[in-house]
Amino acid sequence: MKYDVIIIGAGLGGLTAGAKLAREGMKVLVIEQHSQPGGCATSFRRGDFTLEVGLHEMDGPGSRDMKNRIFSELDVTGNVEFIHVPEFYRFIRGDLAVTIPHDPQLAAARLTEMFPEEKEGIAKYFDQLLSPKKKPAGETEPDKSVGSFLDSIISNDDLKLILLGNLGYFHDDPYSLSLIYYSVAEGSYYTNGASFIKGGSQRLSDHLAGYIRSHGGEVLLNHVVTGVTVEAGRATGVTFRKRGGKSQNPEEATADEIVANCSIPALADMLPPEQGALLREEYSGLNTGASLLTVYFGFDRPLKELGHSYYSAFIYDRSVRSQADIAANNRDDFSRRSFTFVDYGQVDSGLAPEGKSVGAICCIDYLADWEDLGSEEYKLKKEYVAQTFIDRLGEVIPGIRDIIGYYEVGTPVTVKRYTLNPGGAVYGFAQNPGRKVLDSFAPVENLHFASAWGRTGGGFSGAICGGYLSAFNLLRKRARH
Asked: Tens place of pLDDT for every residue, the chain, 481 residues?
């Protein structure tokens, strides 16, 4: 089988790259090990409920958003419905509670009213996110951590925690998160607002997969790429097999270009030994990001009937008194670990029938705490986590336990099973200050990166934009030759 491009993985980056390349007339093959496309942009059914795997809120699409161009080109606009999310987030820690709007002026005014002595620091914070100062040509300022930046402009620890309410969207520790990366990502929420995909993120993934097919490409599900063929320093094809068919002889496909939507560590294992070792050396100084744990809920009534009125609430434990406590808390017992609760019933999500609703609890977690458990121990720990979080959620929304119709726990083991990402990482390499960016791999020509592990990082927008840029650069390179 001969193709113009083979894409390893059908996450949002791979699907976006594949759709763009197919649109430009290239013969595309996407190979995905899961039974459905999307990676973390998927959903699944349990009875009356559609449970959303990864999307809480996606920044934009807004007027200054690159995704507008992408969605227009790939016919997403008009075929996938984006529902506006009413507020950015609700921050709760004990008696301290505040709702942060998407409008940066309103957010700054609300915080200044609460912390008038921090007016100057609040202004500097939003200035950093919305209007980064341009330096003279050749002059650059070294990247620093978000934590050190906040310490330099703000004294009040409560205010710092409020500003970091949705830190889990990016990383697990403000003192090791790049300020440059955070400013771009967080700034986009304030610039472009946020939305949820009606019916769940699977709608977007299915549309992109369908777009590839309708433009002459193939999306092969339930197949695992086992190797990348390299000849004379050029990637020329892949070997693959049906998932679960280890005894089968691998199939082969050739192509002029290979796009890796898989993790970069997984790609290193697919390459021949010499090139694989060189790629491992390339990323040897990079850290793998954290994973997530999610408790999915189907409710027999809308939570509005219990008096709940917030789309997303970030609930910090009382023991977290400063940003220096966040990293340790992310490894604390689940009875004290901070968490997010998303109530999809606050918008017209399309995830549940009339009179019912869907929600999810999510927190930072780590594969090492789960992967060595026996099957019974694993099952018991999941149940402990579910019951613990249900009790804690009941403190915020009294009566919620009584209306739970279904719940299910997804752990870092689950993430790794469905994405094959090392560590069950959801955001790729950790976005540490000044980290090396892997945009290409010189020892192997015609090999391109289009995943959370590349230049644009993780999250829905990072994956979509990264996939599109990978395709754009591939097309530009071919046009030069």
From this structure: 899 999 999 999 999 999 999 999 999 999 999 999 999 999 999 999 999 999 999 999 987 889 999 999 999 999 999 999 999 999 999 999 999 999 999 999 999 999 999 999 999 999 999 986 554 444 467 899 999 999 999 999 999 999 999 999 999 999 999 999 999 999 999 999 999 999 999 999 999 999 999 999 999 999 999 999 999 999 999 999 998 866 678 899 999 999 999 999 999 999 999 999 999 999 999 999 999 999 999 999 999 999 999 999 999 999 999 999 999 999 999 999 999 999 999 999 999 999 999 999 999 999 999 999 999 999 999 999 999 999 999 999 999 999 999 999 999 999 999 999 999 999 999 999 998 888 889 999 999 999 999 989 999 999 999 999 999 999 998 888 6
- How many CA atoms lie within 13 Å of 102's alpha carbon, on the beta-carbon side? 19
What six digits make up the tokens of 129? Answer: 């996110």
Q: Return all residues near 55 (Cβ < 8 A) that are at least 6 apart.
A: 41, 196, 197, 200, 201, 460
Which numeric CATH code is attached to 2-47+200-286+431-480?
3.50.50.60
Q: Residues 6 or more apart from 79 whose CB is under 8 A from it?
A: 207
Burial-class residue 371 by CB neighbours within 10 Å (0-12, 13-18, 19+). Answer: middle
**What is the DSSP annotation of 450-462?**
-STTSTT-SHHHH
Collapsing DSSP to helix, strand or coil, 25 comes out as coil
Distance between CA 154 and CA 481 in Å, rounded? 53
Burial class (CB in 10 A: 0-12, 13-18, 19+), 92: buried
What kind and span of H or E run contains 15? Answer: helix 12-23
> Is the sign of the CA dihedral 61, 462, 367, 165 positive or negative?
negative
Other residues' Cβ atoms within 10 Å of the Cβ of residue 337: 23
- Residues 300 and 214: their CA atoms lie apart, in Å, by 39
Q: Which of 363, 418, 371, 421 is nearest to 392 (CA)?
A: 363
For 90, phi and psi rounded to 5 degrees? -105, 125
Closest CA to 351 of 152, 216, 201, 251: 201
C-alpha pair distances (Å), 237 with each of 77, 83, 160, 260, 263: 33, 40, 49, 12, 18
